[in-house]
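pasting Helix-turn-helix domain-containing protein for the record, 98 residues
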Amino acid sequence: MNGHLIHLPRYATTDAPAEQLHTERHGDAPYTGDAPVIDPHKATYTVLEVAYLLNLSRGVTYQYVKDGTIPAFRVGRRWVISRKRFAAWLDEMVEVGA
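structre below
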């Protein structure tokens, strides 16, 4: 990504400014769990792996997956993210932000 910023939507549910709410609710918290072991031979990522790769909290990553910001699909009760679609989406986000 070489220093490019990716602008993702903020979530607001009250009259407070969106920036303030996002910081209060999610604290722009980076990923805080253990580093997942990402198998380079899998065709998909889990939500936890994408959270780690984007340095987002798990909750914010789930919000982005559920609202379609991050391309994903359900397999049973699990969300999975295609590596190819994720890479294309990420490239597109960098181009839009450039």
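Confidence is low (pLDDT under 50) at residues 20-25.
The beta strands are 44-46, 73-75, 78-82.
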